[in-house]
């Protein structure tokens, strides 16, 4: 019985380096806004992200292992193309994915995901490739692996514009709100000078 709301800003450099800044509010914390969660990633190190802690002036290097994304669930999914729609002026393909997730006799749940994706959002090929790699490695986190190819076949690919997920115990909405071009300082994609590595982090 916890509700969470958040805003994430994602910055992408011309060469494909990335930075995300996430602010969350949670009913478990009296809806107070958390300190920003800041991550940077570099296109030449696709298996690595760096968590920046501005309050402690430290950083933590996270190595992404595909096995870490395996939840242990046995997932069976079916994907259906619903149609083509426009969101924020972007042409999207809308697909519906119904998944049944099991973990032995301890867990059995069915959830439904509605997904809108668009190739109209301007992102670098390297960034798109990173996103595709991540999706192919998520395994049965949100839906079964074969759904990735099914979505491509129905044209539901590109940047995620909107996602809704509904199940017995969870309800979630992710929604793109704005896309814009900016002149950004290159150092926002780098570890700030003077920050020390925290090897006890994630």
Quick structural overview:
The protein is mainly beta.
N→C terminal distance: 26 Å
DSSP strand tally:
11
The shape, in one word, is globular
> What is the succession of H and E elements?
EEEEEEEEHHEEE
Q: Which stretches are poorly predicted, pLDDT < 50 over at least 5 residues?
A: none
Residue-averaged pLDDT: 86
Helix/strand structural class: mainly beta
- Indicate the proportion of strand residues: over 45%
Gyration radius over CA: 18 Å
Characterization of this structure:
This protein is mainly beta. The chain contains 2 helices and 11 strands; from the N terminus they run ββββββββααβββ. A 6-stranded mixed sheet has the order 1-2-3-4-5-11, with no helix packed on it. It has a 5-stranded antiparallel sheet with strand order 6-7-8-9-10, covered by helices on one side. Strand 3 and strand 4 form a beta hairpin. It is globular, with a radius of gyration of 18 Å. The model has no long low-confidence stretch (mean pLDDT 86).
Annotation keywords:
202 residues; five-stranded antiparallel sheet; six-stranded mixed sheet; mainly beta; 10% helix
Protein topology:
Layout: E1 4-12, E2 18-26, E3 37-41, E4 48-53, E5 58-63, E6 74-87, E7 90-103, E8 107-118, H1 125-137, H2 146-153, E9 159-167, E10 171-175, E11 196-197
Parallel strand pairs: 5-11
Antiparallel strand pairs: 1-2, 2-3, 3-4, 4-5, 6-7, 7-8, 8-9, 9-10
